[in-house]
Amino acid sequence: MVVLTAALVLPLTVPYAVAVALRRDEFRRRRACADDPSQVAALIRLDRKIRDTDPAVVTANLKPPPIEWLARDLRRLDRQRRGGVTLESELWLAAVVRAYDERLCLACACLGVAENLRPLHGLDREIERVRVEGALEAAGLQLR
How far is Cα 35 from Cα 59, in angstroms, rounded to an integer? Predict the structure, then answer.
């Protein structure tokens, strides 16, 4: 019975013991940091600042990149969207299409072209994408 119990307990406890032994210094450093009130207060302030920072507000305040960069990105993403490795992976294709749509929105903002890509989904988004591409090309942006 003792051998059976040891055979069951040993595989469960050994990995934890090894992890504790390997990360002993990190545990000591965390414990020392938790004992210092100024460190704890600084960490609490940092957590609040990170939590209160909304990424949408930060990105909305950023200046759009130059239109030449957007045009280059749009041509590159269009090539990836139409063929190559992206057609083999649905996740990769979805990421490329999202990036392409974001660059289209930025280019529209730079050139003053109206777009409604963000709220649309499915076929409506595809149709709007084609319309926006045509409007950008009419505004002088060469996509292909």
Answer: 37
Question: Does residue 127 form part of some domain?
Answer: yes
d(CA 111, CA 75): 17
Give me the domain span that covers residue 23.
2-53
pTM of the prediction? 0.57
- Tell me the per-residue pLDDT of 43-90, one tens digit each, with 9 for 90 and over: 778 777 777 776 666 666 677 778 888 889 889 888 888 876 666 778
Tell me if 35 sits within 8 A of 64, measured CB to CB: no
The b-or-e profile of 9-37 (16+ CB within 10 A means b, else e) is eeeeeeeeeeeeeeeeeeeeeeeeeeeee
Which pLDDT belongs to residue 115? 85
Closest CA to 92 of 71, 75, 77: 77
| CA–CA distance, 143 with 55 (Å, rounded to integer) | 29
Q: Tell me if 70 sits within 8 A of 105, measured CB to CB.
A: no
Please indicate, yes or no, whether residues 11 and 41 belong to a single structural domain of this protein.
yes
Q: What is the pLDDT of residue 88?
A: 74
Q: Is residue 84 within 8 Å of residue 76, measured between CB atoms?
A: no
